[in-house]
From TrEMBL:
Pfam families: ABC_tran (PF00005). Residues 3-202 form the ABC transporter domain. Keywords: ATP-binding, Cytochrome c-type biogenesis, Hydrolase, Membrane, Nucleotide-binding, Translocase, Transport. It comes from Pelagimonas phthalicica. This is Cytochrome c biogenesis ATP-binding export protein CcmA.
Length: 204
């Protein structure tokens, strides 16, 4: 099932930021949102993830098919790496966390409390959670923040594996992930519709 966006308009803080968006994302495909700071990528991803309502239009193939990773890591600091992943696996009705531990090079950190990890290690753990959700559509907001080059490569490999298994990924990122198979989607600035007063209307 494709993720599909039809004539979508999204707003942040009550202010429209993007409109007229149409795209679809098929199984096995990745789509990278590009656009300058403040152009509305986060707002779009939040809307697709169901965290805020659309202003106009609709999204299909989302809902419970989505695993969303945002700027906030959402980790439980007192729990170990293993406990964090097991907790999330349970939430999604899964058990096996070994692929996630290995995929994000967390085996040697397995017993460390999440709160004691470095920024990049925390980010790796946050992204590893995607792998234990079993959800097919990964929606990722700036997934590589704090990651070094080796960790970016691990992340790209995890996305590749997800796509190969029939998953899909929609992400906003300013860096080149080296995912040649990813398509690009440029989000443009919102163009406010001209306001026409009743007086002007008389002349139209
Ligand atoms: N909580 C908020 N309340 C009001 N306006 C907000 C809020 N968060 C963001 N905005 C504004 O909404 C617009 C879109 O922001 P958004 O975070 O979606 O952009 P972005 O493309 O993800 O930016 P970046 O590349 O910097 O992460 C910006 O003008 C921003 O200032």
């Amino acid at each position: 099932m494709d993720l599909q966006v039809f004539d979508l308009a999204v707003a942040r803080g009550g202010v429209p930021v993007l409109e007229g968006l149409n795209f679809s994302l098929a199984e096995g495909r990745a789509l990278v949102l590009r656009g300058p700071n403040g152009s509305g990528k986060t707002t779009l991803l939040r809307t697709i993830a169901g965290l805020q309502p659309a202003l106009e239009g609709r999204v299909e193939g989302a809902g419970e098919r989505i695993a969303y990773a945002a700027h906030a890591d959402g980790l439980k600091t007192a729990l170990s790496v293993t406990e964090n992943l097991s907790f999330w696996a349970q939430v999604f009705g899964k058990e096996d966390i070994s692929a996630a531990l290995q995929g994000f090079d967390l085996v040697d950190l397995a017993h460390r409390p999440a709160g004691s990890l470095s920024a990049g290690q925390k980010r790796r753990l946050g992204l590893a959670r995607l792998m234990v959700t079993g959800r097919p559509v990964w929606v990722l907001d700036e997934p590589t923040v704090s990651l070094d080059a080796a960790s970016v490569a691990l992340f790209a490999e995890a996305v590749r594996g997800h796509l190969a298994a029939g998953g899909a990924a929609l992400m906003a990122t300013h860096i080149d992930l080296g995912l040649d198979e990813a398509e690009l989607f440029d989000v443009g600035p919102y163009k406010a519709k001209p306001r026409v007063s009743a007086q002007d209307e008389a002349f139209l």
